[in-house]
Specification:
Layout: H1 7-20, H2 30-37, H3 41-53, E1 57-60, E2 66-69, H4 78-85, H5 110-126, H6 129-136
Antiparallel strand pairs: 1-2
Length: 146
């Protein structure tokens, strides 16, 4: 499990990256996603519904149905996915959980976390799903796509 993001967020990032490898508009079944990514079916279903509700995915019911990206992969940043699933609390909350942690009343890691948080934010807004999907096709990542 990630240090910063939830398991749901990790799965959302994996699923959207997988969908970005598919031709635009091609529907991919949840069964294929769960098989290829080894994610529990019902858990992934709820995640994909949330991403659809937020406009990041399209869904279609029926025998030819499934999920596809709701906009071009180049326009979906990692931040869009993280914000849709986990929100952006990591940007404002104390990493140690102190509600009163501020610049005037900092915790022991306040300054260090601020720099790390800014770096994480920069990476999330500057990387899109198309870039991630391209990198995931490298042999060492072994993301299997038909």
């Amino acid at each position: 499990m990630s240090i910063i993001f939830s398991r749901q967020c990790e799965y959302a990032l994996q699923a959207t990256s997988y969908l970005a490898l598919k031709p635009a508009g091609k529907m991919t079944t949840i069964k294929e996603l769960t098989k290829k990514l080894n994610i529990p079916y019902h858990f992934l279903g709820k995640i994909l519904q949330n991403l659809t509700y937020k406009g990041l995915l399209n869904s279609q019911k029926g025998p030819t149905g499934g999920f596809s990206l709701g906009m071009p992969a180049q326009e979906i940043t990692l931040y869009h996915i993280v914000d849709a699933i986990d929100g952006n609390d990591f940007m404002t909350k104390c990493v140690m959980g102190f509600p009163e942690c501020t610049g005037k009343n900092p915790c022991a890691v306040h300054e260090k976390w601020g720099g790390l948080r800014d770096g994480i934010y920069s990476m999330l807004v500057n990387k899109n799903i198309a870039q991630i999907a391209k990198e995931m096709k490298k042999p060492e990542f072994r993301l299997l796509v038909d």
